[in-house]
């Protein structure tokens, strides 16, 4: 399964939180999303932290994939750094 959303960036903020200082406020219709990033994530996806992001579209894609289970939980050998576990067990 794959879910894809196009979000219009309405606001870009820099916060005083040291490990995740960048915040994008984006909108899909009437639903607003708050996305928080650290410097490494922005660099990885070649996003330049700038007010020029306002008014641009951000495409967010979630792809499901099957993870292997071990005796007491997930087998961590097939988990990538970009993986996100939603709901579990």
Would you mind describing this structure in some detail?
It is a single chain. The chain has one domain (2-78): OB fold (Dihydrolipoamide Acetyltransferase, E2P). Helix content is 7%, strand content 38%. The chain is built from 1 helix and 4 strands, in the order βββαβ. It has one helix at 39-44; strands at 2-14, 22-28, 31-37, 57-63. Strands 3-2-1-4 form a 4-stranded antiparallel beta sheet. The protein is globular, with a radius of gyration of 16 Å. It starts with a strand and ends in a 26-residue tail after the last strand. The model has no long low-confidence stretch (mean pLDDT 83).
Element layout with pairings:
Elements: E1 2-14, E2 22-28, E3 31-37, H1 39-44, E4 57-63
Antiparallel strand pairs: 1-2, 1-4, 2-3
User: How many beta strands in the DSSP annotation?
Assistant: 4
Tally of domains: 1
- Which architecture does the CATH hierarchy give at level 2? Beta Barrel
Averaged pLDDT = 83
**Major sheet attributes:** 4 strands, antiparallel
Just give the CATH class: Mainly Beta
Beta-strand residue fraction = 35-45%
User: What general outline do the C-alpha atoms trace?
Assistant: globular
CATH topology: OB fold (Dihydrolipoamide Acetyltransferase, E2P)
Q: What portion of residues is helical?
A: under 10%
How many helices in DSSP terms? 1
Q: How would you spell out the order of helices and strands?
A: EEEHE
Order of strands side by side in the largest beta sheet? 3-2-1-4
Low-confidence stretches: none
- The termini sit apart by 19 Å
């Amino acid at each position: 399964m794959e879910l894809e959303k196009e979000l219009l960036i309405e606001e870009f903020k820099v916060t005083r939180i040291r490990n995740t200082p960048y915040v994008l406020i984006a909108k899909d219709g009437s639903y607003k999303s708050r996305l928080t990033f650290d410097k490494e994530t922005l660099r990885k996806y070649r996003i330049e932290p700038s007010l020029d992001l306002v008014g641009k579209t951000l495409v967010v894609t979630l792809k499901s994939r099957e993870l292997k289970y071990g005796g007491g939980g997930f087998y961590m050998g097939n988990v990538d750094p970009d993986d996100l576990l939603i709901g579990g067990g």
